[in-house]
Amino acid sequence: MKIKTVLIANRGEIACRIARTARTRGVRPVAVHSEADVNALHVREIGHSICIGGGPASESYLRIDAVLAAAKAAGADAVHPGYGFLAENPEFARAVEAAGLIFMGPTPETLERFGDKASAKDAAIAAGLPVISGAAGALSDPDQIAAEVRRMGLPVLLKAVGGGGGRGQRLVADEKTLMADIEGALREAKSTFGSEGLLLERFLPEARHVEVQIAGDGKGLVVHLFERDCTLQRRHQKVIEEAPAWGLPRDLLERIAQDSVRLGETLDYRGLGTVEFLVSGEEYFFLEVNPRIQVEHPVTEAITGLDLVALQLRIAEGAGLGLKQGDLTIDGHAIEARLYAEDPAMQFAPSTGTLTTLSLPDGLRIDSGVEAGDAVTPYYDPMIAKLIIHAPDRETALARLALALDHVAVEGVETNRAFLAALARDAEFEKMNVHTRWIDERLDDLTAAAKVPGIRLWKAMAAVLFVTRGRSDDAAEPWSNRDLFTNWRLGLGGDAMEAGQRVMLTDAAGSVEELCVGPVRSGDTYTVYGSDGAALTFSCREIAPGRWRVAQGETVDVATARLHAGVIEIDAGPGRLVFRPAPPLASAAGESAAERTVASPLTGMIVDVKVSEGDAVAEGDVVAVLESMKLEISIKASASGIAANIAASKGMMVDRGQTIAEIIPPEKEQA
């Protein structure tokens, strides 16, 4: 059956990506959206979208009835679930097929089998795949789980039976936190996956994560599209993915791939799926199956030359795979980095807000679901974009990824850009001397602010642009009048510092510096004084709209720059730099008590309050635990003192920036 219209039951970058392929195959895509997504990029790009409910996913993207009603209204022949939301829900797949539509994924029976980790493990054992040893079956009683963990011996991995994609996993490594870890894992399993059952598995401390992409026609033919390495993870969440798995013996990888195919064949697997493994030395162990398209599917597309969404469409139409295992070869190396709106300084908590600036580099594949001006809301996964590099070899791919990340600029939310750039340049990662907990063990080093080469020159240029661009000599408004604003009187002499204009600049790392731009001299030469009094003299001339020639001594650089949305964006040799400027009085303020106010980093629900009124609190102590975007985030005190004015309680919904408590100095409390 030829599919004419497909309803995409998803949002963001995957909805945009599915729509692009659908159009190339002559299939009309139709979108759905929540009330919070009415102006979202996938709605704008797809062009026809149906509202299915409120902002929270439970009121929209997880509503089977609303999605089916939208499919009927759109006259769809098929439904593509994307990933996340309802993609692995067997009841949704059944409902789609019962409505006479094509579900572009595995059968409901397959989704049931792999949706439960205990059942998936049984299927793997039946197919002859090696599995990690652990307690038999799923457990939900905290005392029973604790007893089993002690029997197995620490460390032990707790895994929600309904979890997936790295979610619902918690490592227990310390007897002191055993009960708290168990209770947190049970709570997360229930709130996120609807089941309290946990699997207990032996923890492999230095393993690599390798997954195999399979595709089946639903009639017994299954092929593999080679493997991906997803070892770089933070708290079991993938950060950078690549294909193929570099540095592992090809015969070992071939055995893993054949096991994956055999597992698919035992179930007459239909559609795309990913079989995941842990590799430790020469051993490998089955983890789980993700019966859907993966976030990281572009790296497989890059090395195989296939369009995986087109393959899904072909399978759904009953046309089979159209390829054999022998037809598939590996071309070069591909690597993908996930750019997220998250704050590394706040335990990588999602960062919500409006993207006032979003500049992404050219020359590579970028899959994104947002543009400048769009909002990152607390309702959904905060991914901004995926940067995908395809190169002849891994060394070149890593170098190109690092350079591309340097030329990413985002304002309005915090991001993991600098963290990703540090990973791309890390010597141990380059040698692949890493394991699944390697990031967690080196997190402080990887999130330390990197020094940007030549930052002083570009900061000085930003100051010059701020006090000169967009102003004229005859404007009546003082802010717009260059002469009045800068206090420059050319040729009148006098002290340069007195005649100059001061400006406060905040860089992407949050560092604030006051600079003074001296009067312009012949040849468009400026002298900019730093907060330490050191002078930097250079010439700065616009040679084309937005393109500047910057000369200092014998060195000449050409950079692009623009002033927009209250920021100055400069793209030069070190990368794309963003500065937020303000006149000095705008930042003038005395010492505030802000550091003693414990505020929620984002919108969510308080699941636990760890302190009581009058408790002594040390800097770094956890004051409360917040659940947002299916993650539990510890809210910590930034100063020591006494807990006071506690304004939150368990189960309470809080907004970003809302005060949770205050930490008052001990001497103030005694007074």
From TrEMBL:
Domain annotation Lipoyl-binding: ranges: 588-664
Domain ATP-grasp span(s) in chain numbering: 121-317
UniProt KW Protein biosynthesis keyword: no
Gene3D superfamilies on file: 2.40.50.100, ATP-grasp fold, B domain
Annotated signal peptide: none
CDD domains (UniProt xref): biotinyl_domain
Cofactor annotation: biotin
ATP-binding found in the keyword field: yes
Protein name, UniProt field: Biotin carboxylase N-terminal domain-containing protein
Origin species: Neoaquamicrobium sediminum
Alphabetical list of Pfam families matching this protein: Biotin_carb_C, Biotin_carb_N, Biotin_lipoyl, CPSase_L_D2
Domain Biotin carboxylation as annotated: residue spans: 2-444
Keywords, alphabetical: ATP-binding, Biotin, Ligase, Nucleotide-binding
